[in-house]
Amino acid sequence: xxxxxxxxxxxxxxxxxIAQVATSGGVRAPLAQVADQVFVDLVRELERQGVxxxxxxxxxxxxxxxxxxxxxxxxxxxxxxxxxxxEAVLEFLDNNGVVARTRVLARFCKDEEAQVKAVLFDLCQxxxxxxxxxxxxxxxxxxSEDELHSIRQSRRGEGLDELVWSLVYRMGPVxxxxxxxxxxxxxxxxxxxxxxxxETGRISSPHGSPGTxxxxxxxxxxxxxxxxxxxMFDHFQALVQTLCCRLRGELPDVTVDSTPxxxxxxxxxxxxxxxxxxxFAAEVIETxxxxxxxxxxxxxxxEAYNEEVGIPPRFEQFTxxxxxxSIARGQEDTNT
Length: 336
Known about the structure:
The protein has 336 residues and is mainly α. The chain contains 13 helices and five strands. A three-stranded antiparallel sheet has the order 1-3-2. A two-stranded antiparallel ribbon has the order 4-5. A hairpin with a 6-residue loop joins strand 2 and strand 3. Helix 5 crosses helix 7 and helix 9 crosses helix 11. 10% of the residues are buried.
């Protein structure tokens, strides 16, 4: 069947993206809860689509009773996030100053020694931990706050405000608890981010709805050193929503006489085979930049008009996305 193959291919590409994001900038994000999170989110989405729990259980290859027990167990612990050995070792070093490797191995004696050593090596490679000495004299020290600040600055910053801003834009009106339920951020950090975004006017609370946030704009300027996480989420979300609209056969209410409604949604993928000195290489590579410039100018005019006349209670959001990458293919010519 075509659909199972498509699902398998989509899962594969999604795991590639998650693995890349989880290790970007030297960070090793915990993944212990990913499988459970995927299960819970899939169940919720299937319920939203009207699929019964009995059918959902069958789709997962589970008996109804086992399925319900797992849903209940994960629902009760949905606010708990697993901690990886990587995080635990880093916290131990951070709390204990200069620490000998023998002490680290003794502290984590219930874990495999080879795994603990691998984590220590990875932390050093990431610049979060410093090592000195050799053999039995090897000691470790976690990077100080000033040193970590320098590392974060060199890695384009954390971008929490920008990511929260994009989530509010796409999910709004949305409450703090709904954002917190997504996981991956501490309650205190989220509260501070929402406060900063509110103070700068990037988000606001609708009248009479304290603790609920919304925004009518979200823009990450080209060349910004922070906010790549938000831009990545927004691009991925746009792709997913577009594909879902096509699968559901949804057509927009806003139409143009000269354009069939079905042409108002969807996407295209074009691949060009190029090489050095190809006559069309420059045109292909520069097309994305021209596309961005044209849409940026159009968005500015649309926003200016909307601000002048006001946005009605019901409206539609048209989202365009574009990306470009280069992948080496074939083999190098070794002939001389």
